[in-house]
Design brief:
The chain has helices at 25-32, 40-58, 65-87, 91-117, 123-148. The protein has 150 residues and is an all-alpha fold. The chain is elongated.
Length: 150
Amino acid sequence: MGNGWSAGLRSNWDHPRVSLVTVSVLNLARWVMRDHKSLLAWQEAHAVVLTLLPAIRQIEHWYANPIFDQLQRAALSVQLNIAEGYALRTSKRFRNHLDIAYGSAVETAELLELSGELHFLSIELTTITLGQCRRCQRLLRGLINHLRTY
């Protein structure tokens, strides 16, 4: 994928009639991204949610409930803001939602670290989800920086 769009996008650049000079950035992004689920950042955020939510439901520490409630909201917010921003169809609004998603990804990582330090979550679960969350943060930052140039 040496096409400059590797910051969170998965696509094929085999179409011979596509010219980067003649296609606007937003239209090009839509051509490359079939939907929000093709974004690697969304895929990582989704993986965090699919890993965390079932694990949290199995834990019965009443004193951890406030942290787990916020952790669930923050993790879901990342995934949902990427999807909502993509659906709005303008670069500026998409970038704004990506900024919000990035903030929620940072919040998710902080809550994961806290949950691990307090031994509310296993070391294995914390390590796995924290890695996914950090990858999502990097992908979001790449998308945000890319969209700021246009």
